[in-house]
Amino acid sequence: MRTAFLGTSDFAAAVLRDLAAADRAPALVVTPPDSRRGRGRKPGSPPAAGAARDLDIELLQAGDVNDADARAAIGAARPELGLVCAFGQVVAEPLLSELEMLNVHPSLLPRWRGAAPIERAVMAGDERTGVTIMRLVAELDAGPVALREETAIGSDDYHDVLSARLAEIGARLLVRALELRQAGGLELSPQDESLATYAAKIDPTERRLDPSEDAAALAWRVRALNPHIGTYLELTDGERLGVRRARAVADAPPPGEIKQREDALVLGTPDAGLELQQVQAAGGRPMAVAEFLRGHPAPVRAV
What we know:
Blueprint: E1 3-7, H1 10-21, E2 28-31, E3 35-37, E4 42-44, H2 47-54, E5 58-61, H3 68-76, E6 81-85, H4 95-98, E7 101-105, E8 113-114, H5 117-123, E9 128-135, E10 145-152, H6 159-182, E11 198-199, H7 215-225, E12 231-234, E13 240-249, E14 258-261, E15 264-268, E16 273-280, E17 287-288, H8 289-295
Parallel strand pairs: 1-2, 1-6, 2-5, 6-7, 8-11
Antiparallel strand pairs: 3-4, 7-9, 9-10, 12-13, 13-16, 14-15, 15-16, 16-17
């Protein structure tokens, strides 16, 4: 079956590579143009574009997949089906009617529709998440569901680990969906709208760890936003201390205080403590707290 793959992110690139490994490489990959990224603002390609080049798949980089030129290029590839995965652009009419599309979404829809489903699931303390294959419709992540698979969110599942596992599940489900569709057995079921929740894009202010919040919620946020976004404490001297790994612990100082306990740092919160396991000083690299304390004074309080 000839397909066109619409994707952008690292997650999409991982799914694309797994599709190719399963002999389901698309005829065309569609992704946004190169842009300036990172602190140095150096130009770079979306991860899915790099994967397409590595796999020697025809690549279309389109600023708007819905414009006439992009639609013509997609049509020229003669796809029977579109595969959408972490694309970042809204697919609208008439493209939606021109090409049937299946979407790979890393949540158990209808929970966590939207831009940041992996992060929101972890930040909410969800015990389980998963991947849903659904038919793309005009309304955000609201199409009928074809396949779904769950996975537990472990206590040490940071974003990179969980995302990689969900990408593997997504590729496997997508291959199964293609097999079922070719055999005429792909069944679709409507979502329960009463259960829908929205996974809003992560706001920069959410990176800050507020010691007035409970320790478990802070630990969930650290796991959800690392290593790709990052979290930090704002110290009373105005400096920021990046927090890359942390866990909730029972014994804690008063809220806001940071106590050194041998080679550990513990932040007090209203209900428990947040043990800082890996931190990053301004302009430095992530390091274990024991290493950090050999070259830096222990911080004493967070705002």
